[in-house]
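Quick one:
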Amino acid sequence: MNDPSRPRRPHGPGAYLLYIVVCLVLGGLAGAASAILGDQPGPVGTAVTAALVTAAMAAGFTACLWWWRGIDEAAREAHKWAWWWGGTGGMAVGIVLLLTLMLRAEDQSLSAKLGSTPADIFVSGMMCILLFQLAGYSLAWAGWWLKHR
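Output:
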């Protein structure tokens, strides 16, 4: 068991290189399986797609747990603070923009790149909100480290 009074030994460069290689291999396998099996029609295709997405998310979550256990308390605090404040702020900005565009859709000419079906536009909106969250997180994370140096 881990003794909470003993500091953790951080992961070394070799562990991160192995981590990157494993992620690339798993991503390649998921992409290949999706290309081969993802075009199945009906419920079988839906089940295969759900299984592949679930497996990819489980692998990603497992990798995140491994990474989280290898960082020190200061890094954990920086990430928690940045995600809470930066991610929340970015989400708020993204939602304001998305709702403004959607509520005033007849006054706006949306780019064709956003899609033409409701599903395409929904996915584009969610991706934009995610990008705002990541931008807010990145700014808050950098600010946290600059403040605590």
